[in-house]
Amino acid sequence: MPSRVHASRPYNCMMNTSPGTHLTRIHAAAAWFVAVTFVGASGHAVAAAKVPDTLQQRIAACTACHGVHGEGALKSGFFPRLAGKPAVYLARQLQNFQDGLRKYAPMEYTVRQLSPAYMREIAGYFAAQQVPYTRSPVPNASAAMLRRGEQLTSHGDPALKVPACSSCHGTQLTGVQPSIPALVGLPYDYVSSQLGSWRTGTRASAAPDCMAVIARRLGASDISAVATWLASRELPADMQAQPAGSIKPPLRCGVLGDHGGGA
Amino acid sequence: MKWIGRSVLGALVLTVLAIGGWLLLASRGGELATPSAASVTAENLRDPALIARGRYLTIVGDCAACHTAQGGQPYAGGRSVSTPFGNIPASNLTPDRTTGIGQWSFADFWRALHAGRGRRGELLYPAFPYTSYTRVTRDDALAMFAYLQTLAPVHTTPGASGLDFPYSMRSSLAAWRAMYFNEGGYRPEPAKSPAWNRGAYLVQGLGHCNECHAARDALGGVSGHPALSGGRIPELDWYAPDLSTRAGGGLKGWSEQDIVDLLQTGRSAKGVAFGPMADVVAGSTQYMSGDDLRAIATYLHALPPRAQLAEAMPQFDARALARQGGEIYGQHCADCHGKDGTGVAGVYPPLDGNSAVTEPTGINATRMVLLGGFAPLTGANPRPYSMPPFAQQLNDSEVSAVVSYIRHAWTNRASVVRPEDVSRYRHTPLD
């Protein structure tokens, strides 16, 4: 138990310190009153609040990191853009954080008791946002690494039994409705950390978890190559996700209702 | 250091254990009177009214909160309950025959709830709060047992105990129980109203409020402090406030309606439930009947006044700290909580006079600033407003400044929070 809690009681001062110190503390307390009063009186003008009854107002806990329109945090690759991602995908991620399939303590804490209906509503809000994409910094990479990234993304690696990213995430990597997110426009840090999380089990999805299978087949340098190439790629003019049913996944995936091949 | 501390503590425990164990054996008369098997038949366990009441009571007891793993089946156990002595896995309460309570008789269940003993008579760890549940009546226990037996059985893999030596020895519990556990039911106070008595029964028994809302000593026992007078929750690092509404109380100025509102909707005119209490509201109290909530409010409202803590004084460069804190408050907090700290009724809680802000340790305000989060999601508030987390935006000194500011602004008079405290709470695990 912390003794510091009560350390500032006046009788402690009386017993443990000289009268001079006690006097100083009284002065400090007086200064505090003055300072608080001063700052309080000159505080920012606040409109007599009529709080907007909007979802945007309600989800300040989300927008503080992900942006008011889900544009993501520009300074950090770890607070990804949510705007325009398929609603079903976003709702599933919230559910996965709640269930502990995705491990990130602040997200797990924030969503821990939200209802499925509220999570769908929040997911719908971000899915409907249309804000311009911004490019994030691309790490320096050799031409060989970029080639490897492009190869894995567009063609896969049969020797590793890794399918092309585009076979599920869409020909332009802009995602596929209703459950597959875009890969373009994501920062290097985010893509590499998510693939790493799948390898270490701190990110998972409904079984069979095809992304976990793929991430475990990739080495660290391949993950880096994919993340670099994705971050360096020019954005397509049309960032909309492809329509539902427009892909035939090569692996069995729980998030796709277990459809797909059996690689 | 930590290891040495634990060893010393361990030696201490073993010494106390020897004495306490003897005391316990000496003091224990006969076996606990358990209900005769004849009075509990398979047929009356299937009584729909009994089962419905049992369902309600397990919600009142918030059993699912501990006995459900994150993302797991309700009541199937698997969650690891952290204590300062190690982690204790919560058991499976579904009627699976091997990993749950499928083979338990009501007598077994009653003995666990009332006497803190397992099916084989072993002493149970008091992370299972039988220290409170011992006050639950046999009728209520029977209803809960009947309900739990109707759940779909879930076969689980029991988690291993993560207790440190010597706590890993169940025999060490004999000493603990001699010191902290008084087996026995709730004794009504005839001088008080039926509502007060119902409230006392719920708060002291199934509600097990005192398990968090009282200070624990080095051995994890609740004693030596008035009931419900507030305490730090070990491991979780939240402060469960004093629940007295009288002078010096943590809920000073709360009306009975404020208490009912908070428990039913997650918010009241005086504050919003957050942290572990948000989970309690969302999982338990919001479902309680109006009569039971009013009874709880009647009981809490009658708790005695508390000794007034002397006003805290700032400990370091007050003027600079207050100026910095005030500026941060104006920039990040005042839009919602108001520059006068009054909040917005029904939406954003007041900070002036709010026990969450002024509780003795400063943990709650600090962690709220760091974590933000949604108000409890309840039937009355299905789309709650939320507070942004500031852990990413503000550094330790900035959080220290703004928390110290709100703890001393307006009519608040609480101690400052130091940057090193903020740093510590920044790294507290969230579950």
Explain this structure.
The complex is a heterodimer of chains A (263) and B (431). Chain A is mainly α and 263 residues long. Chain A folds into 3 domains: 1-30, no CATH class; 51-132, Cytochrome c-like domain (Cytochrome Bc1 Complex, Chain D, domain 2, Orthogonal Bundle); 136-263, Cytochrome c-like domain (Cytochrome Bc1 Complex, Chain D, domain 2), CATH 1.10.760.10. Chain A contains 12 helices and no strands. Chain A has helices at 10-16, 19-41, 55-58, 60-66, 87-99, 105-111, 116-128, 143-154, 166-169, 188-200, 210-217, 220-232. In chain A, helix 5 crosses helix 6, helix 5 (87-99) crosses helix 7 and helix 8 packs across helix 12. The longest helix of chain A is centred in the N-terminal third of the chain and has 23 residues, at 19-41. The termini of chain A are far apart. Chain B is mainly alpha-helical and 431 residues long. Chain B folds into 3 domains: 10-23 and 39-180; 194-301, no CATH class; 318-426, Cytochrome c-like domain (Cytochrome Bc1 Complex, Chain D, domain 2), CATH 1.10.760.10. Chain B is built from 17 helices and 7 strands. Chain B has helices at 2-27, 42-45, 48-60, 63-66, 106-115, 130-133, 138-148, 172-180, 194-204, 256-265, 275-283, 290-301, 318-337, 355-358, 363-371, 396-408, 419-426, and strands spanning 80-83, 86-89, 162-163, 231-233, 238-240, 373-374, 386-387. In chain B, helix 15 (363-371) packs across helix 16 (396-408) and helix 16 (396-408) packs across helix 17. The interface between A and B is large, with 57 and 68 residues.
